[in-house]
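User: I'm writing a short methods note and want a consistent example. For Similar to SYMA: Hemoglobin A (Casuarina glauca), I'll paste the sequence; you return only the structure tokens, no commentary, since I'll be parsing the reply automatically.
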Amino acid sequence: MGSIVSYVVSSEGQTGLENDDHKNSGLTQRQKKIMKKTWESCINSNSIVICVEIMLSLFDKYEDTKEMFPDFKDIPNEELKKNKKFHAHCQMIMSVVNNAVNAFLSDDDELFTAILKITGERHAKHAKNPIIAKHMERLRDPMIESFKRHMKSQWTNEMGNLWTSAIENIIKVIIQGIQETLSEN
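Assistant:
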């Protein structure tokens, strides 16, 4: 399994490997540096707020998805904005994403893949209402929109391409974990 940017590079047709100390990822040092900077300053520093936005956007667009969360399904979205249990769930989600992004930024493809596949496995096995691929795919647009909103002027075309592809690959690996688990049962 390739890293986030192996996917980015192949899907965007970029080569840009000049001065690259990160041959496994396919990114230049400059690209990694700007991704790390935006992750730390814009996303990770606001992780709960961002995840609350993502989840509420998801619930607004797909009511059936909210039904999969027994603890939150009967709470109006406006109240979820201040609900500490919901915030705790969002913090757990972003902890997984943060760990995966940090593994990627450290060029640890195996850890990146393991973190996300385990997440998919847990969602397939342990959820009261098992989450399937389509539910994870629904995260793409709310994540991109929230990241874009929080990166503000730092969301350039290049940054948008890098983070859009990164988000797509994160979701793709989680789905692989879900599908592998469901195929075992």
